[in-house]
Design brief:
Layout (H helix, E strand, L loop, with lengths): L6 H6 L11 H5 L5 H12 L5 H17 L7 H11 L7 H17 L4 H23 L5 H10 L7 H4 L6 H14 L1 H27 L5 E3 L5 E7 L10 E6 L4 E6 L5 H17 L5 E2 L2 E3 L3 E5 L12 H17 L4 E6 L7 H16 L5 E5 L4 H6 L5 E6 L2 E3 L2 E3 L5 E2 L7 H7 L2 H6 L1
Parallel strand pairs: 1-6, 4-9, 4-10, 7-8, 8-9
Antiparallel strand pairs: 2-3, 2-5, 2-6, 10-13, 11-12
Helix pairs in contact: 3-11, 4-11, 5-7, 6-10, 7-8
Length: 431
């Protein structure tokens, strides 16, 4: 079973995007190889839905973080290895010897570079195998056991005798045929092992540098998400907040002024849940979470002028899609930031209240719903499974400041006109 989400959610949370400077992917994309980046991309697109598999991957990242290893391959040299192994030799050792001899002749008399490039690529591949053997011999984990056994076996005893040496035509043809023909399958999974090591070393290094943590995944029946210090992974000085949702209080109704930190808190929650399902390090201390079927957000819902959708109608369709998933008894996490802000206050009040009550009935799912319409919170107080939190505003003179600390209750802050006055908008218009 795959983890349910969609493009809107991934964009809301800023999860993907190799070239997006502040994406979560870009935070962890410190890999050194093309294959490592491919594997990292696959992990980001395919969160896990089995608690055992998640915890095993998380433990492996933690192991590498404690090992504090450096990736032992130079990027330029390893590019040679990948290019070299991307082509296959046809024929036997004799025909390959003849082909190598022709390249040698062309290099000597026709200034052809093929033989020189073959030598460079072959030496780089041999050096990479020696470096890989040294690395896997330091690691006592199942992921590298096969590589460790193979590289220390009889088939590869020749490595030490030729590493760093200038190879004759005969040995060039011999080892070229061995690596790209006879041991083709072994070389392919050795490369995959290198890509895996690249990802685990890179991600664990990011975790160590940024002070991330490792979450514990629980079965879906536990129906819980909790962290004593949740923060946004992309903000170096983010204020951590404690948060907990479970079947007894499965909905957090969040209020607070603009700029107080509501959206950042909601994004932090969604990112932590998604990364937790990947088995990756999280910016959340003591995080424990139950496996979910999926995650939907509605934070930056765009209108669709091509289809004639207004912003409000786009919001309605978004809520409808989420409602269909939740009503099918899927075990979901749902984040709604400022429900129905595309319509008038009266309709927004009625719709926010009605939808919040309806969603909260599904105790197997978890919800965070934010709004500026604080009167909705008063109407929700009779529902004992709804918890109320707000991001406060602290006034210093006539200037609002924001501690970004989640506080229990419903805000009474109304600083909109004060901010307008501070910016002297009306003064500019009347003058």
């Amino acid at each position: 079973m795959s983890f349910i989400t969609d493009k809107q959610t991934l964009e809301d949370l800023g999860l993907l995007g190799k070239f997006k400077q502040h994406s979560v992917f870009s935070i962890f994309n410190k890999v050194k190889t093309g294959g490592g980046e491919r594997l990292l991309t696959e992990m980001f697109h395919q969160p896990l839905t089995d608690a055992t598999a998640i915890n095993e991957r998380s433990s492996l990242f933690h192991y590498f973080q404690n090992a504090n290893l450096s990736f032992p391959f130079d990027t330029a040299d390893f590019n040679r290895v990948e290019n070299y192994m991307s082509s296959v030799i046809n024929g036997n050792g004799v025909t390959n010897l003849a082909a190598v001899a022709r390249k040698k002749f062309a290099g000597a008399f026709l200034h052809d570079k093929q033989y020189e490039q073959l030598q460079q690529n072959l030496r780089a591949t041999i050096a990479a195998l020696v470096a890989l053997r040294a690395l896997v011999n330091k690691l006592d984990i199942p992921m590298t056991a096969q590589a460790r056994q193979f590289l220390s076996g009889k088939k590869m005893q020749w490595l030490d005798t030729v590493n760093g040496q200038t190879l004759s035509i005969l040995n060039t043809a011999r080892y070229d045929s061995l690596l790209r023909n006879t041991l083709r399958k072994e070389m392919e999974w050795l490369l995959e092992t290198i890509y895996q090591l690249d990802v685990y070393i890179a991600v664990s290094s990011v975790s160590r540098e940024r002070g991330f943590y490792y979450a514990t995944a629980l079965p879906g029946s536990a129906n819980v998400f909790g962290s004593t210090a949740l923060r946004h992974p992309g903000l170096p000085n983010a204020v951590p907040n404690a948060i907990r949702l479970d079947s007894s209080t499965n909905l957090l109704f969040l209020t607070g002024a603009n700029m107080a930190g509501k959206s950042t808190l909601m994004k932090s929650f969604g990112i932590a849940l998604y990364m937790g399902h990947m088995g990756f390090p999280v910016a959340a201390a003591n995080m424990r979470f139950s496996i979910r079927d999926g995650l939907y957000t509605s934070i930056n819902v765009p209108d669709n002028l091509n289809m004639g959708y207004s912003h409000f109608y786009a919001e309605v369709l978004r809520v409808k899609k989420v409602a269909q998933e939740v009503s099918n008894r899927k075990n979901m996490v749902v984040i709604f930031d400022e429900l129905f802000k595309g319509t008038n206050v009266k309709d927004a009040y009625d719709a926010t209240l009605a939808c919040t009550v309806a969603f909260s009935r599904y105790r197997n799912s978890a919800f965070i719903i934010s709004t500026h319409i604080i009167e909705v919170g008063e109407a929700l107080k009779p529902y004992n499974n709804i918890q109320f939190g707000y991001m406060p505003t602290v006034m210093k003179g006539n200037q609002p400041t924001y501690p970004y600390t989640l506080t229990s209750g419903i805000t009474s802050d109304r600083q909109g006109m004060l901010i307008i006055e501070n910016e002297k908008i009306l003064e500019a218009l009347y003058n």
